[in-house]
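Please decode residue identities from the backbone states below.
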């Protein structure tokens, strides 16, 4: 039986429940994501889980929203250090892959016909909008965006299994496209301040 994630008072926090839900998603897929399985992994009763997440749908939404919030914060942190938005996006996707994909577990929800991943859909559209706003002259902006999202989904859904070496080669090629100067940069115009992404 899973050890459960307890704090010093013996209770389980919402974040720890979401951690357990992501672990279940990663190891068992959408069909294995049940309230019973999550409660068992977290080391709490089903009633204790329902106190925080009244239904499976609410739990799924919580998984999505936390993923979106975390990604927004990490990308914003990178752009705050002077990195371009597109470079920040690619770097963050690469980082997720290097963490064995567990941080991408939320995307498995997209494969479920019973669940409409509204938060993830809105996030994807917002990401693409930010790419277009921050890189209006970037020749490969859409190609890079759909390439990293495509690899992410392929990895999560086990469509094509790339070796670590192949994955590294993929990101190296994408980073090379991102690093290519845009027409505006070649003329010295620049692209101005990076427009931030938020979950609002």
């Amino acid at each position: 039986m899973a050890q459960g994630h307890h704090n010093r008072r013996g209770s389980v926090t919402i974040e720890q429940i979401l951690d357990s839900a992501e672990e279940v998603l990663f190891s068992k897929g959408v069909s294995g994501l049940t309230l019973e399985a999550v409660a068992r992994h977290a080391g709490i009763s089903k009633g204790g889980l329902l106190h925080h997440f009244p239904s499976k749908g609410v739990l799924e939404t919580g998984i999505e929203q936390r993923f979106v919030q975390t990604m927004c914060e990490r990308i914003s942190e990178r752009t705050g250090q002077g990195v371009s938005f597109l470079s920040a996006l690619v770097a963050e996707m690469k980082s997720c892959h290097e963490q064995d994909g567990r941080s991408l577990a939320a995307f498995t929800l997209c494969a479920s016909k019973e669940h409409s991943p509204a938060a993830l859909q809105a996030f994807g559209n917002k990401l693409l909008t930010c790419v277009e706003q921050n890189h209006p002259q970037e020749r490969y902006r859409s190609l890079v965006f759909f390439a990293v999202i495509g690899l992410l989904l392929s990895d999560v859904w086990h469509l094509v299994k790339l070796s670590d070496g192949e994955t590294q080669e993929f990101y190296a090629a994408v980073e090379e496209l991102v690093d290519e100067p845009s027409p505006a940069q070649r003329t010295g115009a620049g692209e101005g301040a990076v427009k931030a992404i938020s979950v609002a």
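Observation: The chain has two domains: 1-54, 66-186.
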